[in-house]
Design goal:
Elements lengths: L6 H17 L3 E4 L2 H10 L8 E4 L14 H15 L4 E7 L5 E2 L5 E2 L4 H16 L3 E7 L3 H10 L6 E5 L14 H7 L3 E5 L19 H16 L6 E3 L5 H12 L6 H16 L15
Parallel strand pairs: 1-2, 2-3, 3-6, 6-7, 7-8, 8-9
Antiparallel strand pairs: 4-5
Helix pairs in contact: 1-2, 1-8, 3-4, 5-6, 7-8, 7-9
Length: about 290
């Protein structure tokens, strides 16, 4: 649904945002050109009801030619103009995905020091302009995110990275990513909480044969993820008012899973891991972090 701009899609976004407001869900995260347009339109006349975070990732730092303050600020300014917004609550740049091991075994970040400084400079300028109230980055590379939080704490207010219902934090890790999140007092949103849609048996449509089971799995996953105190919130893709209601119910339910609930979620995630489609196989790298 990222690229759809039909009237039916726009009405769906308006209805979902309306139900979020009614349920007390107050943050929208948009990261494509189509999404920032759709959500800006859905918020017309009620912009103050939602915190709005965004990026136009197709034009940002995954293109190395864009990893400098001037280029990124030009995209940010253009995004505000195109979407008729005076400001965003969170400007978060979508950055390189994964680093790699060099021949000497050392970790190589997805961005060079110069590129990293250019990304930070764009965030600094966006915040100084008053057009971005908070700033941050998203990446799948935890060592680089840690580096950015510690090197540019004045502009890395938020980080966004995957966190599924199978993710576990390594015990006694006081020097890693999650320790840095807490030490830097950084907001943390977890994407892919349902491993795409692989956690579910149904297709997500209201009234499908697996709706009740899938809704329960979604609630268990959200509750499990929220048990990590470093996490500000998971970012599930909510495509219907029924899914909004279910997410709100998950927050209202008891936070910690009991033994039977945890076993049920573990079985579901084992099935999910076994059936992950090709494009999501990389999520298996996020079981222990």
């Amino acid at each position: 649904m990222r690229t759809c701009t039909t009237p039916g899609f726009q009405k769906n976004r308006y209805d979902v945002v309306t139900r979020c407001i009614e349920r007390g869900i107050n943050y929208i995260d948009a990261c494509t050109g189509a999404e920032i347009r759709a959500y800006s339109k859905a918020l017309e006349g009620r912009r103050e009801k939602m915190y709005l975070g965004w990026s136009w990732y197709e034009r940002e730092a995954r293109n190395r030619n864009q990893c400098n303050g001037d280029a990124l600020m030009a995209v940010f300014e253009d995004s505000l103009k195109v979407c008729k917004q005076e400001y965003v609550d969170l400007y978060r740049i979508v950055c390189g995905v994964n680093g790699r091991r060099g021949e000497d075994g050392r970790w190589i970040f997805p961005h060079t020091e110069a590129e990293s400084a250019g990304i930070a400079e764009a965030l600094r300028r966006a915040k100084k302009s008053g057009k971005a109230r908070m700033t941050g980055i998203s990446s799948h590379d935890l060592p680089w995110l840690k580096y950015m939080m510690e090197t540019f704490p004045e502009v890395i207010d938020v980080v966004i990275t995957p966190y599924t219902a199978k993710t576990k934090v390594l015990p006694n890790d006081d020097t890693g990513f999650y320790a840095a999140v807490k030490r830097c007092d950084c907001g943390f949103f977890g994407i892919k909480p349902f491993a795409g849609t692989s956690l579910f048996r149904g297709d997500g449509s209201p009234g499908n044969a697996y709706e009740e089971e899938d809704s329960r799995m979604a609630r268990l996953a959200i509750r499990y993820i929220l048990c990590n105190p470093a996490i500000t919130a998971p970012i599930p893709g909510l495509v219907s008012v029924e899914q909004v209601d279910n997410a709100a119910l998950a927050v209202m339910e008891r936070r910690e899973l009991d033994r039977e609930e945890q076993a049920e979620l573990d079985r579901a995630m084992d099935r999910t891991w076994a059936n992950l489609p090709y494009q999501y196989q990389w999520l298996k790298n996020w079981e222990y972090v």
